[in-house]
Amino acid sequence: MNLNDTIEKILNSIIEDKNFFEHKHILFVGENTTGKSRTIAKIVTELFYKKKPIYYMCSWNRKIVNVRNEAIKTFKDIDYERVIKARLDSINYNKDIFHDELGTELLMNELYLNTDKYSELFDGFLSIKVSKTTIKFEKELYGIWNEEVLEINEGSFEQLSDAQVSMMRILMEVNFAFEKGCKYIFIDEFDINLDHKNSSDFLEWLKAKYTDIVFIVSAQSLYTILNLRDFDVVKIIKNFKSEIDNLCVFFDSNDLDNVDIIDKKLFASNYKISEIDERLSSNLKCILSNVPINKKDINIIEQSQKLTTRQKVVLNFIKQRARQS
Amino acid sequence: MKINFPTNYEVDYPIKNKYYYGETFKKDITVVLLKASDNYCMYCGRKLVLDNEYYFNLEHSIEKDGYPGIEKPKTPFKHCKYNLSVACIRCNQKYKNKMIERIPYNLVSKDLNCMSKSCNEPCTEYLIARDTYLKMNKIILQPDGVKSSKNVLFNIQYDLLKQIYVPNIENTSSADIDFIEEHIARFNLNRDTASTCIMEVCELLWKIIDLMPDSFNIRDVLNISREVHFDNIIGKVFIEYIQENIKDMVMLKEFCELYMLLSYV
What we know:
The structure holds 2 protein chains of 2 kinds.
Chain A (H helix, E strand, L loop, with lengths): L2 H13 L9 E6 L5 H14 L4 E4 L22 H9 L17 H8 L1 H9 L6 E10 L3 E10 L2 E2 L5 H18 L4 E4 L10 H12 L4 E5 L3 H5 L4 E7 L9 E6 L6 H9 L7 H14 L6 H9 L5 H16 L1
Parallel strand pairs in A: 1-7, 1-8, 2-6, 6-7
Antiparallel strand pairs in A: 3-4, 4-5, 8-9
Helix pairs in contact in A: 1-2, 2-3, 10-11, 10-12
Chain B lengths: L1 E4 L20 H12 L11 E2 L2 E2 L2 E4 L23 E4 L1 H7 L9 H4 L15 H13 L19 E4 L4 E4 L6 H13 L10 H15 L6 H9 L6 H13 L3 H14 L3
Antiparallel strand pairs in B: 1-6, 2-3, 4-5, 6-7
Helix pairs in contact in B: 6-7, 6-8, 6-9, 7-8
């Protein structure tokens, strides 16, 4: 199945509120420039204009800047549709829309004004306590003054690691989307900054906390997949023609419970199978998941003159089962 | 459904000690080692003969050289027959060569003066050096293999369902499993050196069953397939596994089909 057909299929499954293959949650993997981010953005765009309750975080939304401005707003003052619209706008590519020209940030305001709420929220997975404290500043030109600042686990905000900030940011935005009633949350490059353990544990924790939300994410690390349950995994394979022609192969994350298997099936660059094999593989997955096969793929395979024995065997199996169902 | 990947080989060693790594006597040891491994690499199982030409290296379990800074290092095990195995060029020069911890110099600096003698078994000096090496490097050295503290040979299996190499965990402690896993990772058995041989055997058997008359039985099919020198020793072992476990032609054909389908899932 190529990328275009895969996008169609994902859109249909969301619009009709059905499983994609075995599950509703979806994870994209693939080499750089295979089109993972653009695929997510495309799906988000389609669903956004169909007014579906979705939320979207792109890969550069992982920081929280520790500068606050009283005039700036909090989550309470914005609606989630504006966030998505701004993120889909190409003018904001690579820009954090919560970050203003003065270098201040909405998220810091949000944290500062709701310390109790976020302490409770972060405590679940991150063991982070947020509080306020007054610090005395002294500078030659300005004199002495007191300022209230945010304190994290009785230390300064700057002491947080990139991973902790990434997870705080994801959690804040997921919680925001949840409070606004979103049902589908798209997160591009979910595992940026996260280590081999946190990458999957955090996603599983989010899934358990927000049980009604469907997560559609992309990831780079083998370890994100290792402990993940109930995700359909889409591997995008570069074919060097055009992005929409890139082929997709599908796996069930529940089958991918071994580092060697994940490495071999999803990441090993020398494990390249032919275009025919990719099409056979994705249609075999359709048969096993009891969803309709892609007849276009079967026609392309049948027209091929040189099928190997194994390709013939698999093709016969798919055709036979498709006839029966 | 797991099959045993060979992790040791019975070698019919010549009794006399000679300079086996020297040009004159290299052939003598090579012949017996290749016979023991049936012309396959003792580490990754890959075929060593291509178009009637041999592509392999004589591999030293304990490195023959490489003590930088020491002038004229003695190399007592360079020519030792028990220290030699046959390996493909990739295993010898890449995986068995890099990231190796060297054993203390005093263990390889003795002058053993054993070239004029005959040996029926490895000497104590060699065994001490080998044991030290194994404590420092988790490698199932060939052709003898490595035994656990319970005197059980470390064993690698090919999991036919998952289609990967895994340690045999039966009677194996977690430390021993770590040892075997590190060996599998070092020789990249599931990646660079991963074999597609079992799939090719299934295709071959399926084709034979498809082409041959109904009068053929499973023994005939397996006998024909044994004539093939497979790309990897795992193919040869797989045929034996089929002989033991599958008794019926219909079942064999279905098994081969199932295996082909599995590789697409």
